Amino acid sequence: MSNISEVISKSRKIVLKIGSNVLSDDHGTVNKAILHNIVEQVSKLMAMGKQVIIVSSGAGICGVGAINKWSRRGDINYKQALCAIGQVELMMAYKEYFADYGIHVGQILLTGEDFGDHNRTLHIRNALFTLVDEGVVPIINENDSVCVDEIRIGDNDTLSALTANLWAADALVILSDIDGVFDKDPKTHPDAELIAEINDIDETMCQIETEGKSSFGTGGVSCKIEAARTVNEYGIPMVLLNGKKQDIVLEALSGNGRGTLFSR
User: Fold this and answer.
1) 232: containing domain
2) pTM of the model
3) What's the CATH number where 239 sits?
4) Count of structural domains, the chain
5) Residue 202 scores a pLDDT above 70
6) For a surface tag, which of 14, 203, 209, 229 has the fewest beta carbons within 10 Å of its beta carbon?
7) What percent of the chain has pLDDT over 90?
8) What would the 3-class secondary structure string for 133-195 be?
9) pLDDT tier at 214 (50, 70, 90 boundaries)?
10) Which of 171, 169, 178, 183 is nearest to 132 (CA)?
């Protein structure tokens, strides 16, 4: 059994973060086949007795899919409007796909301000526990339509890490469009090597190239490493997997999937 397999196997409470680069196809709209496969995997994890909270990006690309004529407008008001429209589309997709397995979903939209206020974090935590205890899957996203720099979390890697700590999760699993952390960008360096496990983040940061991010995602390798640092400080391991691969979470659970494990 691999270390990643062992972590997922032993974890009862899992935060699963899904990046917009995972959900988007080559045209920048939602890849429904991938989304449905992820939902199917979550349903199987729940059938094993695991509890899952999803932190999902994708409101922007769902908005573009609904109203493509706004896609090239750079004005922040249009971007926020696209997210408002897309969030509805995204939740409708989750509702429809989870309904195939008799599972309900609940939406929670957050800002950075919510995590800085004790009363708000208490209410968020109580809402999460109530939903999960009743077998409902919480779908969390940043409230992009109202966020300004002062209250913005910044990216959903960070949001998923904050959620994992708040919920006292057993593991954070981040689905991206790469197999894990490499010593250099595998998209431009064919000789890049996967790092299977990272125990010392500072040392690793000195050894790898972390420049660049996808055209649809706001994160990047650096954001994922910082998310790992955030949860590792609370004793929570983080697993980075390629969410575009069929059944990747279940494959990782069985010991066959490649990825990177962050632990201390």
Assistant:
1) 3-262
2) 0.89
3) 3.40.1160.10
4) 1
5) yes
6) 203
7) 55
8) HCCCEEEEEECCCCCCHHHCCCCHHHHHHHHHHHHCCCEEEEEECCCCCECCCCCCCCCCCEC
9) very low
10) 169
